[in-house]
């Protein structure tokens, strides 16, 4: 790098800044910019191509090409050399443009006279805005210095575009972030929501991309990086030692924060006239562009870490914190790359919808979103780049679709959908106090599944008769430390208070498999779903289980208590867990604490083995609850977390129904109360079939109670049972077609 060229580059940026400061319309500005770049770079041509729509680029300003071609010449993404730069995000630098494969001849521009071609992407934080091109008549390759200088200018252009510099009268480009964008992700909690974007991590706005005093900017950068390093070290020293993932992220932060290459590249950019924050953002843009091309999950994660770190550095430099002064809209749709369960709980029910770039259906955030009944779409790729605070947005959690800045027709259609859903909800609400009594007079007990305090208000609003499954692990999952006994006991007491005397079935800690506590040592297992989980952990390392049982007894404080052990696979496990319960009771008695008024201790039936357990087991348990989610995965040997197989086997498959029927018969014979608390209990058709084969208690998400009750009240179980048996007798694999036929005729 020569000192001379650095000076030139700074001079070019200085002139660029003067152009930006002039009071001019968007087009005029672009025209002046192309002229000054051509002069400074000593090239005959400088042109700016910007995206007209998602896949068309338009020549928006030129110095040297035929001016008539401006706003006339267009190319598709990937077409010609310009299109290639835009598609790949990589520069093209050639001394023989017409001879370069992919060159497209555009007679209206008079371009064929130019041999040398240098095109660089105009991009901001991974968002491609256009292409900046210089061309010369003589056959030469632009030097690294020239390439670099043009990249810096392109970066400043992108920054200016973000600030709206090219918008206005005679606009050369429409304002960024104004077009409608559709995101196709994955629905992780159903429901439709309309509202305005609230960014979990607000975008940092760089208002001063160009700086005069590189020495000062370097100092600012160094000070900020030092602050950053101290902050990362502090985070590392306080991080939970068992949280492997968090430690990995923080270690990556530390590595990047201390990376000499990172700092050097930013210093070089400053040397070329960028401000410290613009230099950080340039590096961030490069990392984001790479992110789009990397398929390796580990590498992508590290690029994300670098992105996070750059955001932190930008916040330090600009002084823009999370508190940007922006006000949360009244109907916020949270947009984030990802979010932890505790942070999501902090927002609580204020949110109308949630859209994440990452996440998974089984993630803790998804569990919380479900508990709060907030529509959630995950895998909405790049939405944090596109969305701005306050943008109008529609979230369709059923289809996994998000419409950002939708046009009026889309909004109108969406409103119709929401109105229909609201109508259905009204209908269900009117059933709230009515019993789930079928046409043949059978009463089905409707209970709800819960796991957080936030769930409890649904007990009243849904008309649930009790909590059939309280997943206690959620309280453990949303914290970053092991809760204390007193904390738990207070929480369980509040749950019982909120239930107002309705029965709550507390399931003891079901961790392992997909539910990993951040503060517990993770165990590497080849098949976690078949591994060391739930009651197996509780029995092998009884400390936490004992603490939990004690907390439950103390919370009951003389009230009835119901406890259920998860994932029991054989009688001895239940007997051993029950013995822990008895010991806990005895200990509490000795300590003088009031014992529960009544105590029921049950087990979840989640492994096929338990369906064939000895009679003594059925006699011993106070009740059983079928955990259909796990039971089905083991029955069909199909991982419930694996998209490739998780929907492959139908609940209404005759083998599975026959299997459940056998469990119902055993429970009837031993007078063991039985319920079903897997997801299928909340699916109306499946729920009706479960009732038809003998289930009398169903526990489901609160939102499912209305739809399930509605179908049950219109069904004759004796008839439905006959339909199921007839289909089975005919040798059908699934009774679903026959059941659907029957229900269609009835409803
Ligand atoms: C089940 O397995 O059906 C169940 C209710 O438990 P979880 O979904 O929490 O594993
Ligand atoms: Mg389970």
Give the tags.
747 residues; Beta-Lactamase; Glucose Oxidase, domain 1; Enzyme I, Chain A, domain 2; nine-stranded mixed sheet; eight-stranded mixed sheet; 23 strands; 46% helix; elongated; disordered N terminus; binds phosphoenolpyruvate; binds magnesium ion
Which ligands appear in the coordinates?
phosphoenolpyruvate, magnesium ion
For the CA atoms, what is the radius of gyration? 32 Å
Beta content: 15-25%
First-last Cα distance: 78 Å
Instruction: State the helix count.
Output: 27
* Whole-number total of structural domains: 4
Structural class: alpha/beta
Return the CATH class of the largest domain: Alpha Beta
- Percentage of residues assigned to helices: 40-55%
CATH architecture of the largest domain: Alpha-Beta Barrel
- List unreliable stretches of 5+ residues: 1-7
* CATH superfamily (homologous) name of the largest domain: Phosphoenolpyruvate-binding domains
Q: What is the fold-level CATH name, i.e. the topology of the largest domain? A: TIM Barrel
- Apparent shape: elongated
Structural description of this entry:
The chain is α/β, with parallel strands linked by helices. It folds into 4 domains: 3-162, GAF domain (Beta-Lactamase, 2-Layer Sandwich); 181-202 and 330-421, Phosphohistidine domain (Glucose Oxidase, domain 1), CATH 3.50.30.10; 214-318, Enzyme I, Chain A, domain 2; 431-746, Phosphoenolpyruvate-binding domains (TIM Barrel, Alpha-Beta Barrel), CATH 3.20.20.60. It has 27 helices and 23 strands. Strands 15, 16, 17, 18, 19, 20, 21, 22 and 23 form a 9-stranded mixed beta sheet that branches. The chain has an 8-stranded mixed beta sheet with strand order 7-14-13-9-10-11-12-8. Strands 3-2-1-6-5-4 form a 6-stranded antiparallel beta sheet, with helices on both faces. Helix 14 (457-462) links the parallel strand 16 (443-450) and strand 17. The protein is elongated. The N and C termini lie far apart (78 Å). Bound molecules: phosphoenolpyruvate and magnesium ion.
């Amino acid at each position: 790098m020569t000192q001379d060229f650095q000076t030139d580059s700074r001079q070019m940026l200085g002139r660029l800044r003067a152009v930006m400061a002039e009071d001019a319309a968007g087009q005029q500005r672009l025209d002046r910019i192309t002229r000054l770049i051509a002069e400074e770079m000593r090239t005959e041509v400088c042109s700016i191509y910007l995206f007209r729509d998602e896949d068309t680029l338009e020549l928006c300003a030129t110095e040297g090409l035929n001016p008539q071609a401006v706003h006339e010449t267009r190319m598709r993404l990937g077409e010609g050399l310009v299109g290639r730069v835009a598609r790949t995000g990589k520069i093209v630098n050639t001394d023989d443009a017409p001879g370069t494969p992919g060159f497209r001849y555009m007679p209206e521009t008079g371009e064929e006279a130019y041999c040398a071609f240098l095109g660089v992407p105009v991009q901001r934080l991974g968002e491609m805005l256009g292409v900046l091109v210089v061309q010369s008549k003589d056959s030469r390759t632009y030097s690294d210095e020239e390439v670099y200088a043009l990249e810096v200018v392109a970066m400043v252009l992108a920054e200016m575009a973000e600030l709206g510099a090219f918008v206005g009268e005679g606009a050369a480009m429409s304002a960024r972030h104004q077009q409608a964008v559709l995101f196709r992700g994955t629905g992780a909690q159903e429901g439709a929501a309309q509202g305005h974007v609230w960014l979990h991590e607000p975008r940092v706005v760089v208002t001063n991309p160009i700086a005069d005093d590189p020495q000062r900017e370097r100092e600012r950068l160094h000070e900020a990086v030092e602050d950053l390093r101290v902050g990362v070290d502090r985070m590392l020293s306080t991080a939970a030692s068992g949280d492997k993932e968090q430690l990995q992220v923080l270690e990556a932060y530390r590595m990047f924060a201390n990376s000499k290459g990172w700092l050097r590249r930013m210093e070089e950019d400053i040397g070329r006239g960028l401000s410290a924050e613009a230099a950080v953002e340039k590096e961030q843009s490069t990392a984001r562009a790479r992110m789009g091309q990397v398929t390796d999950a580990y590498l992508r994660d590290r690029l994300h870490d670098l992105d996070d770190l750059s955001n932190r550095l930008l916040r330090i430099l600009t002084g823009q914190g999370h508190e940007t002064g922006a006000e949360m809209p009244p109907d916020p749709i949270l947009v984030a790359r990802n979010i932890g369960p505790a942070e999501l709980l902090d927002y609580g029910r204020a949110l109308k919808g949630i859209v994440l770039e990452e996440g998974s259906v089984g993630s803790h955030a998804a569990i919380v979103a479900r508990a709060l009944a907030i529509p959630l779409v995950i895998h909405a790729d790049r939405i944090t780049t596109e969305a701005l605070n306050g943008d109008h947005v529609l979230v369709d959690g059923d289809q996994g679709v998000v419409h950002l800045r939708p046009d009026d027709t889309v909004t109108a259609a969406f409103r119709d959908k929401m109105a229909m859903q609201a109508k259905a909800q009204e209908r269900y609400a009117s059933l709230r106090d009515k019993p789930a009594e079928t046409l043949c007079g059978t009463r089905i007990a409707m209970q709800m599944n819960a796991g957080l305090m936030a769930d409890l208000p649904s007990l009243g609003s849904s008309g649930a008769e009790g909590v059939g499954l309280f997943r206690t692990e959620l309280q453990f999952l949303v914290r970053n430390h092991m809760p204390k006994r007193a904390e738990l006991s207070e929480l369980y007491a509040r749950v019982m208070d909120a239930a107002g005397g309705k029965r709550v079935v507390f399931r003891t800690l079901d961790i392992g498999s997909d539910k990993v506590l951040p503060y517990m040592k993770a165990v590497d297992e080849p098949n976690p779903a078949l591994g060391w989980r739930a009651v197996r952990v509780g029995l092998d390392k009884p400390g936490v289980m004992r603490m939990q049982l004690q907390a439950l007894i103390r919370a009951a404080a003389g009230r009835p208590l119901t406890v259920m052990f998860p994932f029991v696979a054989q009688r001895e496990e239940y007997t051993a867990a029950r013995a822990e319960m008895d010991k806990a009771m005895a200990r509490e008695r000795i300590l003088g604490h009031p014992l529960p008024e009544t105590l029921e201790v049950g087990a979840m039936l989640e492994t096929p083995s338990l369906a064939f357990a000895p009679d003594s087991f059925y006699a011993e348990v106070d009740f059983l609850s079928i955990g259909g989610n796990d039971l089905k995965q083991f029955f069909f040997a199909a991982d419930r977390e694996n998209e490739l197989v998780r929907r492959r086997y139908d609940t209404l498959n005759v083998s599975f129904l026959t299997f459940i029927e056998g469990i119902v018969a055993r429970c009837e014979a031993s007078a063991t109360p039985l319920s079903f608390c897997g997801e299928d209990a909340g699916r109306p058709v499946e729920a009706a079939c479960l009732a038809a084969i003998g289930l009398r208690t169903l526990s489901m998400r609160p939102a499912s109670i209305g739809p399930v009750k509605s179908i049950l009240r219109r069904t004759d179980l004796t008839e439905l049972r006959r339909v199921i048996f007839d289909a089975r007798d005919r040798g059908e694999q699934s009774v679903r077609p026959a059941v659907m036929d029957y229900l269609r005729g009835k409803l």
